[in-house]
Every structure is written in C-alpha cells, then in structure tokens.
Amino acid sequence: NAGVTQTPKFQVLKTGQSMTLQCAQDMNHEYMSWYRQDPGMGLRLIHYSVGAGITDQGEVPNGYNVSRSTTEDFPLRLLSAAPSQTSVYFCASSSTATSYEQYFGPGTRLTVT
Amino acid sequence: AQRVTQPEKLLSVFKGAPVELKCNYSYSGSPELFWYVQYSRQRLQLLLRHISRESIKGFTADLNKGETSFHLKKPFAQEEDSAMYYCAPNENSNSGYALNFGKGTSLLVTP
Fold this sequence. Notes:
The complex is a heterodimer of chains A (about 110) and B (about 110).
Chain A: E1 4-7, E2 10-13, E3 19-25, E4 31-38, E5 42-51, E6 54-57, E7 64-66, E8 76-78, E9 87-94, E10 103-104, E11 108-112
Parallel strand pairs in A: 2-11
Antiparallel strand pairs in A: 1-3, 3-8, 4-5, 4-9, 5-6, 7-8, 9-10, 9-11
Chain B: E1 4-5, E2 10-14, E3 19-21, E4 24-25, E5 32-38, E6 45-49, E7 60-61, E8 72-74, E9 83-90, E10 105-110
Parallel strand pairs in B: 2-10
Antiparallel strand pairs in B: 1-4, 3-8, 5-6, 5-9, 7-8, 9-10
C-alpha cells in the first residue's frame, strides 16, 4: 500500500511549455484534490474530484486542467507554464471511510523559468 | 474573502513553554475543523480534528463557536514540535472532497 504517490519530484520548465503532474492513490478513495503551496500563501486548492468523471474548480484553477478517468489517478496539466506557477504541488485523497482525513502525496517542486 | 485566519506566520517559543497557535474561521453553520502539520521534509499529515476531541502528541484544540476559533494548544512545547501547522475548516463535511487551508503558522521551538 503506497498511499498517495506523485511524479516527478522535481521539474524545471521554460515559460510556455506544458506538462502533466501525475498523482495516484491505491486506497480506493473517492475524493482527490490538488493544492499548491507558496510561501506566505499557505495551501490553495486548485482542482478537486469527488469521483471518477467528476471534477470541479478550486480557489486557483486558472492555467490548470484536470481529469479523473479512474478512481486511482488524478493528473494535473499545466497548459502553458508561467513563472507564477512556480510552486510546490500537493495531491491529496480522502474518503468517507476515513472520515474525510486528507492523505497527502510527497509533493512536486516545479520551477518555471 | 479570507475564511480562515491564522494570524501568526511565525511563532517562536522555548522548550517547555506553553504554545498556542491561533485559528479563526468565518464560515456559517458548523464546519468540521482540522489541524494538519508538516514536519521538515515530510508530507502533510492530519494532527487532530475537533470531532474526535482527542489529544495528539500533547496537542489539543477546542472549537469555540462563539468566538469562531479553533486554537491549537500544548502546555509544554518540545523541539520536535517545530513544524508548519495549518488550520483547515471543511465547510461541507458531507462532501469532504477538499479543505480550505489557512496560510499556516511556522512553529519554532528552541532549546
């Protein structure tokens, strides 16, 4: 049982490039979320999903896309990277079975130059 | 509008001193409230939740609906408590899909 995994751990992009941050969980959790963590800003919700095929926007969705084709995977796509997207990205999952406790991945540190 | 306020970005205390990390929320109704902690080089993890009314690692948090606060307290801080702490109300606990985190308080416990 690996919990929540994220790849890559580190990534450097140039402005305008696109990429996908991967997130997977093996706990059969219904709910998955993406957050970004910035100094002085705390954790801000980007997108979330309440189940396969269902996603919705969080507080800071602009510049990001998500999809949830399976229960296990919840990739985050950066369409055209900008320096303002330099951040640490965390994926999390939760379930009614865990009383909504959020289980976090280890994070992806992204730098956009 | 900011719904969760953690007024202290940084809190520094001496080992053995009491510590209180403040959290105020502005949700209507009765949100479910959590404290999450991130130790250095570790992932975020749940510390405690108000529903369970438990004490974890010596920390407690009482929900004060009158003051809309959920302050985290520990009577005697330890160096290993140094970490980033986030208060996180969930406005709709029936969905449970995501949390609205405060900006966090960095706690530094010095010897």
